[in-house]
Every structure is written in structure tokens, then in C-alpha cells.
Design brief:
single chain, 293 residues, alpha/beta, TIM Barrel, 2 domains, binds 3-methyl-2-oxobutanoic acid
């Protein structure tokens, strides 16, 4: 059964503090990705706590095989559209591959652009201990940082594919340590992607900051999904942990096919979808054309 979100007037802007309060009160945090204005409007209207403008953009909107080719300009362009549509959710911009890995200055400048130019409230970046220093520096600049551990898609080549992580005791221990290190570095929250549910629950209990799971079971402090997966818009592949709440790809396909059939059959547009001149204007036009002849 769906619950109605509170009236807009009763809703307050979600901040990183809201995330912490929700964790303290054991209230689940909801997060969805969005990449454009109309989707941002819908996600906001539905009462979702946070929008991630994820670099999954590269796969579900731009048609790349993975997230590696996504640029800062791609991200900022879509973040701006989302910021125009959503007022209440905490807006998190995903730092694309190689926008934070090379130099501190570049990482800081790029993180700053998400807030200054694109209206985001926070940034997200992937990685554990190897990213602790960059997280610390960005946080020190006053920019909230969300971490991302487990299946970090920007490392798809290092992982040898999109594979679940932390399945052995050794790998799981490393993830627990990474989560502690990111918290220590100042991250306000951490996404846990495609890791065993027991491990995600353990990390969530261990940390003071909230975890947001995707393919990480019920024990996380919140849940995030890619919107195209949730609404069944992206049918190239569907990860096993995704629940499709609708099949919009099929609905869109059928609408497009109906359009094609009706145009071919001459049944669209009808008068209902046409614009007409007033009779006197039409007659005046015909007269004027006759006079010209
Ligand atoms: O890019 C993205 O949408 C993400 C989520 C899968 C967490 O990083």
C-alpha cells in the first residue's frame, strides 16, 4: 500500500543532519537516482529523502557500456536539471571517473563545481582507504561527501566485471575497515553496493553514519535504486537485486508503436489535435490570395 507524503508546506529540506537524525531514530532513508527535471519533480513529489545524480547516467541515459566515459560536463549538465526540479530532497552529485583520483586540487575544484555551478548539496565518490585523504580534503572545504564501497562501478575493469564484493571473510574484513576509515575521514554516509546482507548489516551497526544499500539487504540504514531500474525503463540488463515496480519500457514502446500505426493509417491527428483559423480569418485569407492572383 502506498503512503502519501506530507504536504509540501509541511516538508522541510532534507540535509545531511536529517540523515543522521533518521539513523538515530532508526527511520529508513530513501534515495533514488534521477538525471532530469521531470524525474526530479516526481521523486520530490513522492517524498523521497535524497536524489543521487549518479554516474549510472552513462549507462541508463547516455548508452555507454559502463560509467567510465562519463565526464564532469555530463554530470553538471544533468545535476543542474535535477536541481531545477527538486527542492526538498538532499541532492548528491556523483563525481565521475578521474575527476578526483589524480590531484587534490583537481578533486577539490571538481567537488566545488557540483555545489557552486550545479546546485548539489553534497558529492559522492567511490573507494575506501585509498580515497580517505581526498574525502578529508573535500570535507575540510565544507563539502559533504558520501562514500561508496563494495561494487564500485568505476572499478569495473579492476574487478573483471560487475561482481558482488566482500563475499570472503578477508574481503569482508577489508570492507569493514574501509567503512570505518571513510567515517573517520568525515564522510556523512556510505553507499554499500552488491555486498552480502550480513556484512552490510554489520557495517551499518558498526558505524555512526548511515549506510545506504543497493543490493546489500535490509540491514542498511537506507536504500537506493537507479530510477530506470525501478520503473523498468532500462531493459538491457536487470541486476538480480533490482525490484521493478513498473514496466515503463513496454508502455513507452506500445505508445510509440500506436503513434506510428495511427500516422500510417491517417487516423492521427484528428480535429481534436488540430488548430483551426476562425471562419472569417480563413475567408479573408482566401479573398486576399484571390486578389493577389
Ligand atoms: O551511479 C549511481 O547511480 C550509483 C548508485 C548505483 C548508488 O552510484
Amino acid at each position: 500500500m502506498s503512503t502519501t507524503p506530507p504536504n509540501d508546506s509541511a516538508r522541510k529540506k532534507v540535509t545531511t543532519r536529517t540523515f543522521h537524525l533518521k539513523k538515530q531514530r532508526s527511520e529508513p532513508i530513501t534515495m533514488l537516482s534521477a538525471y532530469d527535471y521531470p524525474t526530479a519533480l516526481a521523486v520530490d513529489k513522492a517524498g523521497i529523502d535524497s536524489i543521487l545524480v549518479g554516474d549510472s547516467l552513462g549507462m541508463v541515459v547516455l548508452g555507454y557500456e559502463n560509467t567510465i566515459p562519463v565526464t564532469m560536463e555530463d554530470m553538471l549538465h544533468h545535476c543542474k536539471a535535477v536541481a531545477r526540479g527538486a527542492t526538498i530532497p538532499l541532492l548528491v552529485g556523483d563525481m565521475p571517473f578521474m575527476s578526483y583520483q589524480s590531484t587534490w586540487d583537481k578533486a577539490l575544484d571538481n567537488a566545488g563545481r557540483f555545489l557552486k555551478e550545479a546546485g548539489m548539496d553534497a558529492v559522492k565518490l567511490e573507494g575506501g582507504r585509498e580515497r580517505a585523504e581526498v574525502v578529508r580534503r573535500i570535507v575540510d572545504a565544507g563539502i559533504p561527501v558520501m562514500g561508496h564501497l563494495g561494487l564500485t562501478p568505476q572499478s569495473v575493469h579492476a574487478f573483471g566485471g560487475f561482481r558482488a564484493q566482500g563475499k570472503t571473510a578477508e574481503a569482508a574484513k577489508r570492507l569493514v575497515e574501509d567503512a570505518r576509515i571513510l567515517q573517520e575521514a568525515g564522510a556523512f554516509s556510505i553507499v554499500l553496493e552488491a555486498v552480502p546482507a550480513q556484512l552490510a548489516e554489520l557495517i551499518s551497526k558498526e558505524l555512526a553514519i548511515p549506510t545506504i544499500g543497493i543490493g546489500a539487504g535490509i540491514g542498511c540504514d537506507g536504500q537506493v535504486l537507479v530510477i530506470h531500474d525501478l520503473i523498468g525503463q532500462f531493459d538491457r540488463f536487470v541486476p538480480s537485486f533490482v525490484k521493478q515496480y513498473a514496466q515503463t519500457h513496454q508502455i513507452v514502446l506500445e505508445a510509440i508503436q500506436s503513434f506510428r500505426e495511427e500516422v500510417n493509417a491517417g487516423s492521427f491527428p484528428t480535429d481534436e489535435h488540430s488548430i483551426f483559423m476562425k471562419a472569417e480569418e480563413w475567408e479573408a485569407l482566401l479573398d486576399a490570395l484571390r486578389t493577389d492572383d
